[in-house]
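Project standup — Tuesday

K.O.: blocked on the structure for the chain from last sprint. Re-posting the sequence here as requested.
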Amino acid sequence: MVLIDGRVIHNCGGFNGGQTRTCKVDLSTYAGVHEFRIMFDQTDDDNLGNGAIDNVRPVDNCTNASVNPNFSIAGPGGKDVDQTALFTASSSPDSAFAGYRWLVDGDFIAKGDSFYRSFENQGQHAVQLIASHCFGQDTVTKTFQATMPSSAPVSDFTASRTSIDASQKVVLTDQSTNNPSNWEWSISPKSNSPKDANFIYMNGSDATSQNPAVRFFEPGVYEICLTASNAAGSGNQECKSAFITVNQTITTNEDTMFVNNAQDTTWQKSGLHRSWAQFPSNTNRYRKILLQYTLGCTSNGCSEWDYTNKVEIVYPTGTIDTTIVLAPRFKVEGKRRDTFRFSKDTTWITYFNPTTNSTDSVPHPKRHVTLYNDPNHPQRVTGGISVYPANHTKNYYDSNGNIVNSKPAGADSTWMADDDTIYRTEPEEEVVEIARANTPYAGNFSSSWSRTWTYDVTEYAPVLANAREVRTYYRGNTSTGTFTIDLDFEMIKGIPPRDTREVNVLWKSPGTGQWYGYPEKPIDSFFVERSVDVSQQAANSMVRVSVNGHGFGGANNCSEFCPTDYFVHVNGQQRAQQQIWQNDCSMNPLFPQAGTWIYNRTNWCPGDRILPYDHEVTSYVNQSTNNTFDITMEPFTYDGGGTPSRWVFDAQLFTFSEPNFTRDASLKKIVAPNDNWYENRYNPRCDNPIIPRSLLSPWNTEQ
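H.V.: unblocked you, prediction finished:
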């Protein structure tokens, strides 16, 4: 509130901490020197504080002209009970206009140009619009007649499209007559497994929304039914059989299935980019699953900087997570209160008036209380009242401004919090990283540039089944060019070396990485010991670590240029040690680049894959019981020089079946002769072939 010479002349309304609010006050009648004061009313506890105004600027051209407020009433519903109506102001205020306030049946409801409102009771309701301006305020009141609907709805609906590919979205649109206020949708067939849902509701909608968005995963034909209702009763159930056709998107060539995802997804800024993929069912076995990861430039070129990016799969674990949500019976100005004391009669705020050297008072602004009294729908608004708060204390002052007496404001009602408990259930999910790369220094690349990297993701077979959300994470941010990404999966049927039983996420760092070398937030606090129950069917176990370092902290430029060891502990014992380092960046097949691409780094090179470290821990894991896993890092203290050190660190525990073969040997790669671009540093070559020698797998029974 703004006071001049101790008198309230304007109420500026509410604002949150950290905000700046401009109040327009008519000062045309205040010639000479006057005392200006702002009085703050803190909503949470209704205490008051005083502050001085630093800048007081009169509004130009404040005229003694009325605003002539008016408003219209329209849909989206109607004027029946429980229908939602939109009230919109249509005044033409001058430059000194301050704002609108809305009251319904004498109770304050909303601020702003418009608001939505439904009425539970039939009859007349007074809707008042107050338009405040520099000279004062004007008001207009209209009568809203809420009527009981004459009949129940006749249910009907349409769809945005009826033939789609798997993983695409459909919007169902209500076309029911007689102004429905409630909707109940059903879709069949419906999977009973939260792990492998064949459709989900999207964009915050659900089976009770008027126009839900639905994403379908499983190919087939779906029946859609709708029952609409209103205050007069429930309408008919309208069912449309074979209404939505979901087409198969997986292509097959002999023993190989192809799944395409994220077609030409453009990374424009740092963050997650989501899409959906329809993989084959989990009844298939694959001897090899390859991810073809294609990076390209946009028409504006590529980004000039090297940034970490990831490919992740959102994987339902099959567990249902239950969250307890408290639904209060009332809220004060949109906030839950443990206790609220109020009065229906005016309560007063006292303060010391320096002009009269005595106690003065102003009315306490009303507070709007929203009511939630429907036990069947605890989060549905059932009404509201506007009352005067009475939680505060009134102080009385002597002529010197000293408090000489205090007493509580008079309250005629006290409401205590009485919450309903809601159990919200939803499938539990894991976000599983399957691939990681670093973009190149590509500022000088042409807009037509692209390259494809290949990843072996066979161990992720249980994750790459049925409908899955696919996330690509890009940490970069650029004002010029950027990148596009395509993901193509090749799923080759056959018997794998061993079947993956489970993939457990042990640790997952934030997108920007985990800080390293800070005593006040040590990296050990990130590596909290994990306990995993390993099943009897898990004959083999492996810990996979994906890690790359960034930052130039201290004399050794950690974590980007300082080789660092980590240690894997299983059941309290150190079982593996690994130095984080890549020593062949100068042989990067993507050359030349700008920048420092030739320098070796902590397990990454600009414009290349970031491959994980795998640690076989079968001998140290106990079946049918809990096992503990932990990781520690080589000690390091950041001394404040350079830029802060951090690690992008993910770790997973794989459990497998027994090996499917007694001998396991394969020709994994021919470096030369080879015309693949990735081997261009060693080719062309006509003799002396280069074939890397790989050791037999450490879990093989015939070493």
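K.O.: great, moving the ticket to review. The domain at 157-247 is CATH 2.60.40.10 (Immunoglobulin-like). The radius of gyration is 34 Å.
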